[in-house]
Amino acid sequence: MRIATFNINGINTRLANLLAWLEEAKPDVVCLQELKATDAQFPAKAIEAAGYHAIWQGEHRWNGVAILSRDAEPVLTRRGLPGDAKDVQSRYLEAAVDGVLIASLYLPNGNPQPGPKFDYKLAWMERLNAHAAGLLETGAPVVLAGDYNVVPTEADIYNSRSWKKDALLQPESRAAFARLLEQGWTDALRERYPADPPPWTFWQYFRQAWERDAGLRIDHLLLSPAAAERLTDAGVDREVRGRERASDHAPTWIELD
């Protein structure tokens, strides 16, 4: 079972790229982030024609998450992260697919920091950690996949010199991510590539980042113990980032036995 996460950075703008990758890679499940489309604007017919069932939660211009499944239809289990009824941003979607509970999440960027956006990021991470702890208690195979907007360590970035003030690298962001792992989650890509550096998943559009391979690792698939024991492989389809009109992220994936 191949499960991928892909921040598409505008699903309608990048639809041709997405469909081409789906045809080539044939992942069983895909978690998408940053749809930048309302529910009505989601290209459901094109996704269906590509052979995928889909559930989604859109938002005008920003955010938006989806889960695609090639065989079994995803069974929605949660729409939105619990813990704050006033938070209406489309950042969390959860579904059961073929016996695995899978979440597509788009964690807040948090810039500029300090400020309200960074405060929202940290509060969102605390809510995620609380919900994740409850998921672990079920004992089920769970995959938390998405754009976490956190660079976990200095080894997960080409060079942090110009990123020192960025919310993705702040001690508070890293500490919250570390607390999540301490619950018992396995960082699949780091498990597969324990040596430094691991594969990058994101290259910004500026300063020829892609051409220089000046990348970061911010797209993560975290596995509960029941899922981690089934992990057989993980990787990044980095060539997708080099295509015309590409997202600034590359699809990141795992395979479960």
TrEMBL record:
The record marks 219 as: Important for catalytic activity. The active site is at 106, 147 (proton donor/acceptor), 249 (proton acceptor). The record marks 149 as: Transition state stabilizer. Mg(2+) binds at residues 7, 34, 147, 149, 248-249. Residues 4-249 form the Endonuclease/exonuclease/phosphatase domain. The record marks 249 as: Interaction with DNA substrate. One of its GO terms (biological process) is DNA repair. SUPFAM superfamilies: DNase I-like. Its cofactor is Mg(2+); Mn(2+). The keyword Methyltransferase does not apply. Its EC number is 3.1.11.2. Belongs to the DNA repair enzymes AP/ExoA family. This is Exodeoxyribonuclease-3. It comes from Brevundimonas alba.
